[in-house]
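To the team - manganese (II) ion complex, inputs and output below.
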Amino acid sequence: MSDLLEKYRSMRDFGATPEPSGGKPKKSRLPIFVIQKHAATRLHYDFRLEVEGVLKSWAIPKGPSYDPTVKRLAMMTEDHPYDYASFEGVIPAGNYGGGNVIIWDNGTWELTEPDDPVEGIKSGKLAFRMYGKKMFGEWALVRIKGRPGSKGNEWLLLKHRDEFANPDVDVTEVAPRSIISDMTLEEFGAAIGTSKRTWQSNRPASTSPSSAGHAPTLASRLEAEKAKKSTRKRPSASPPTRSDRAPKKAASAPSRSSRAGSPPAVPPTRRRPPR
Ligand code: MN
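Output:
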């Protein structure tokens, strides 16, 4: 590994020179994530992580929680194409996953454990950091032993304890809107009407906070929450927006094929996630 730098190092005394002795290149680009709020037969949040050029996907009925004591059931579903990350629109009734979809959050993510995401999915444990507009800090997806007869696709999404953990703010409540259209799923449905035609946003699902437009960030929402509680609670620093971690290029425009497919509705008999 260090062979390429052998000569460089042999020529220097790093106790005497401030020059670096090594260092790893930064990845040019972190993989993306998207969370889509989907009013299918049952409302859920589609949690998708870019792995090996596709979007590994989980359907989370209740969405993410910043409370580290709360574990949210996440049903692993089929891989989705990369371009699905920019899909906000209507899956026509009668089609698989029929219902309205908004882009609830997006950004980049970074695996912290294990080293390889494919290995992590295989072994049923992914720990990672998220750089979104609503999703920040350390999270984990952990596969659980499902109820007897389950398909082995039951995972839990949980928040690790860090500076972003917050048991008092329900992020799905305080920040319900699309980061693309700034509409709630209900407003989106009303804007689309009951027409059966498919409507699709032609705005790219940018992962750059600066192009998130007027969509409020969790940081600003938390700021507002804290301002309200300031008489009771001592304010602390607001979370960084991580604009430095945003990728240079926005996700490409959705392709036609990206409209197909969506995870199935969670069965009505689903178990409650253990706490
Ligand atoms: Mn879905």
